[in-house]
Design goal:
With 442 residues, this protein is an alpha+beta fold. The protein has 13 helices and 14 strands. The chain is globular and about 70 Å long. The two termini are 21 Å apart. It binds glycine (GLY) and manganese (II) ion (2 copies).
Amino acid sequence: MSTTLFNLQNEHIAHLQRAYSGILTDHGFDSLAIYSGHASEHFADDHAPPFQAYGHFMHWVGLADVQHSWLVIQPGERPQLYLHAPADFWHLPTQLPDEPWVEAFDVHLCSSKIGSSKIGSDKTALPLSGNAAIIGDIERLPTNTLQALKAEYQPERLVQALDELRLYKTPYEIACIREANRLAIAGHQATQAAFIGAAGELDIQLAYLAASRQRESNVPYQNIIGLNEHAGVLHYQHYDLQPPKQRYSLLVDAGRRFRGYCADITRTYAGPDAPAAFGELVNALHGVKDGLVKGVAPGVNFLALHEQMHHHLGEILVANDLFKGTPEQAVVEGVTRAFCPHGLGHSLGLQVHDVAGLRHPDGTPAPAPEQHPALRLTRTLRPGMVVTIEPGLYFINMLLAPLRNTALPINWRLVDQLSVCGGIRIEDNVAVTESGFANLTP
Ligand code: GLY
Ligand code: MN
Ligand code: MN
C-alpha cells in the first residue's frame, strides 16, 4: 500500500473515532453495534445473490463482501470487530487486508454467527454497555436477537447523523474514489475498442470486466451496456449475445469499487452507422458535462446546477435543430424534461446512490421538487462532498409521444431519425473542494 493511502487511512479512522464519539454522546448512547448484513439464499436453494455490506459498516472496514459480522463502537474505546470466520472447508476464510485499520481494531474471529439462535450464550453475545443502539439489516436474524442484545434498534436520529457524516468524505475516501475511477476508466477504454471492433453487448461487458480487473459479482451496480435503441433505456439490464447489424451508438454506464468506494462513469459513442447529427450531439453533451463540472463549488445548490443543465439542454436542442423555438421555451414547456427525465447527479461514496442527498443537515427532509422527481440530491454543495455530474439526452418514445399532439415546434423528422441511437449520457465523478472542484474521472 502506498504510504499516502496508509497515512490517509490512519487519519480517516481517527476522524471516525472522534466523529462517532461525538454523535453517540449527542444522542445519549454509550455503545453502538453495526451489523454487516448477510445475503439471503434463493428460495428453496443454497445459493445467494451478490451481497453488499451495510454502508456504515464499510465506512470503518471498507470490506464490501463481509457478512454475518459486527462492529462495536464505544466512545474512548478501540473498535471491536467480530468477524464471522467459520471453521468451514468448503470456503476460504475471510482474509484481513494489510491496512492500518486492522491494527487500530480488536479483531475477534467468530466461528459461529453472532445473532443466530445461540445469542445470549457467553461465546456469541456482543459486549454492549450502557445505553446501546444497533443499526443495520438485522430483520432477517432470529427475532430474539434484539431482545437478547437489549439495545435500541435503528434510532432514526442517530442513523441520520451517521448518514450526514458519510456525506462528507475524508481525503482517504476521496483517494479511494479516485482510484476506483482510474480502474474503471481502463474498462471504459476497452469498451470503446470493443465497439470499434463490432462487438455485441455481452462481449463489450466482458471486455469491460477484464480491463477493469473485476468479476461481475463485485461491480458496484449492474453495468449498463446499451447498443443502439438500448442506449435510451435508462437502466438497461440485458446483454444481447449477438452484435446488431447496424452500429449507431453505444452507451456504457459502468463502475468499479476500490476498498468499498464506488466509481460511476458513463460514456456514449457514435457508431459508423449513426446520422452525423448524433455525433454532434455527443460532443455537445461532453461540453455540457464539462461546463457543469466547472460549476461545482462550495455554496452552490445542486438543484440550481440541475436547472442549469436543463437550460444547456434547451440550447443544444435549438442549436442542433431539434427544437425550433427558444431554449427558454424548451425548458418552460417541459421539452427538456421529456428528453432528460433523470437528475443531474447524486452523492457518491460507499453506495453508488449515497445517503443523505434528500435531507437538510439537521435531518429534516429536503425532497426533490415536483417538476424534477428523479433528482436524488437537493443539497447545497460543501467541501468533502463527492457527486456525479451526468447530463443526458434521450429519444424515449414513452416520454416524447405526449408532446407529438401539441403545437410545440419539435423537429419530429430529426427525432425519428435519431431514435435508433437511443440516447446519450456522459457522467463524471467530482469532489467539492475548499476552492471549487476536483474531477476524479481521468
Ligand atoms: N449508474 C447509475 C447512475 O448513474 O445513477
Ligand atoms: Mn451511472
Ligand atoms: Mn450516477
